[in-house]
Write a structure and sequence with these properties.
With about 220 residues, the chain is an alpha/beta fold. Helix content is about 40%, strand content about 15%. Strands 7-6-5-4-3-2-1-8 form an eight-stranded parallel β-sheet.
């Protein structure tokens, strides 16, 4: 079971980390992958209204168990942050506030079909690590155009930092920030528990945090 008071305490410590790095205005997306609905409830109670999910079936299960209706004025605001198969889009389209992992034209088309005018981020593979999603950096501008042509609202770019020490992520984060600036995009979703300071220093506007809020992910 997730201790809501402990999550609130950790959220406070996280905000202090962000503030020390110069990111007191950075949005925190609480990643509840692998945890139960109690993690979602604890995040919202701690003032973290933005919740990230990596798997469509987990998002649906948690929304159903918590009695959360499709998008309305309620919290949380679901962010889909994992690799997504097109056949799963329809099932979660009514719940997702921000699609963070659009990495190919076919996925953009499917999202536009089931969630017209949806807000999206284009995921860029700045680390060159296979299996984690993201389009090659040289294809990002074209994919942004394709998303817009499909009627989607492209809010910004997203990337997963390179594995290893936090400094290993800096070149990729810097590249993402440069691309976003060239494309006139405001949102930069980059940085997780281990590398948030580097991400903030390179311009992150939102970070995706799991371990620092909920502890190690259950097996």
């Amino acid at each position: 079971m997730i201790d809501a008071a402990e999550v609130a305490e950790r959220a406070g410590a996280l905000r202090e980390r962000l503030a020390r790095a110069g990111g007191d205005r950075v949005k925190v997306v609480a990643v509840t992958k692998g945890f139960g609905p109690d993690a979602v409830a604890a995040a919202v109670e701690a003032g973290l209204a933005d919740v990230g999910e990596n798997y469509a079936q987990e998002l649906l299960a948690k929304a159903n168990e918590l009695g959360i209706a499709p998008i309305d004025a309620q919290q949380p605001r679901w962010h889909f942050i994992g690799r997504l198969q097109r056949n799963k889009v329809r099932k979660i389209a009514g719940h997702v506030h921000l699609w963070q992992s659009v990495d190919r034209p076919e996925l953009a088309t499917e999202i536009a079909r089931w969630a017209p005018d949806a807000r999206v981020l284009v995921q860029v593979d700045t680390a060159g690590v296979g299996g984690r999603g993201g389009c090659p950096p040289e294809e990002a501008a074209g994919l942004v155009d394709r998303c817009r042509e499909a009627g989607l609202a492209v809010a910004g770019l997203m990337a997963v930092g390179a594995p290893g020490p936090p400094e290993h992520a800096r070149p990729g984060f810097r590249l993402l920030a440069s691309q976003a600036a060239d494309l006139g995009l405001a949102e930069l979703s980059m940085g997780m528990t281990a590398d948030i300071e580097v991400a903030v220093e390179e311009g992150a506007t939102m970070v995706r945090i799991g371990t620092a809020l909920f502890g190690p992910r259950p097996h």
